[in-house]
Amino acid sequence: MNINLVMRYIFLTFFISLININLFSSTVTDSIKIDYKDYARSGNYYPYTPLTDEDSLEYPIYWDIQLNVDDLYDLDIGNNFFTAEITAGFYIKYDSIFELSSGGVFPLYPYDHITMETKEPLNADAVYKGFEQDGGSWFFYGYIPDEPYEATAYELNYKNVFNHKWNLREYPFDVQEMKIEFIIPLMDSSIMRLRESKSFPPTFNKDMDNFRDGYKITSIRSEVSYFETPYQDQFVPDSLRNIVGSKITFYIGIDRSGSFLFTKLFGGSFCAFIISWLAFFIPRTSFDTRISLNMGAIFGAIGNRYFVDSSLSNIQVMTKSDIINYICIALLIFNIIIIIVQKNDDITWTFFEKGTNALIFSAALFTSLILFVIFW
Predict the structure, then answer these.
(1) Is the pTM for the entire model greater than 0.85?
(2) Domain containing 195: what range?
(3) Which of 12, 123, 170, 270 is most buried by a 10 A CB count?
């Protein structure tokens, strides 16, 4: 038999088998999805609310979240928290109390289902009361038929303290992301979910009363995630699984603005290096003067390093600020070594014997290392 004909038969058989497997897999998957949806709507399984074809309610139910940050304060690297004042909009395409064709109701108030991750946790069983006790206030606008709403709308004005873990490895070039989190802890994500409003993206007040000088908000982005709760329920026959909650996290990007902090942290070290570098302009015969300038520069750099350490005493990680200061001290020592080599006739480093070469190399090395650390 022709070998080419055999290869054609093999290829054709493989191709037909692959098509059959895909069709079978697709059919099984669609069957599972249809069965699961039927179970959820039957009323015999979670969430135990019977729905018929006459009911327009569809799972999952989506809450569209709009966030406006009114104010931020307590932004201090010594704190593991910050305080935020927010205005949040909650939009849903169903009525607050959805009337079922069977005669029952499905309450859809946001404060019955949605809570927030705060420093002091709110009571999940009494979210409305928890928000009110913390100075929050809810407003109900009813169904708004006009674009871009076309939904039942609620508004929450709220102030609370939120946790924050400072990531300071990039300090002072770091961008912190403060988290505002809304969660549905007691309703499975197959039934109810959170998402960012497409019509109303997150915003912030550009004239905050208490926002700390030296910071600026660069962006707000959101991320939807899911988490497993310790509570179990029955979603399909003869099987239990944990309820999976829904969460939307708004990340508020905060950057350190201006050059004041940069000058405050590194001004002393940079001035110390410049003083050391200027020693190359002094004639080699004035060895004592050159060494004295460099020794004074080293003491200045160490003093600046002590100042930086005292202002960042709570930081236990190596930051870019530490690296830059160590580079300055190391280059000061390098300059002293070059000056000693130029003075000592028993040691010859040909390239550095010429004062111009040492001058240019030291400045270029300093600039390159500092820029590398900043942009790395």
Answers:
(1) no
(2) 46-256
(3) 270
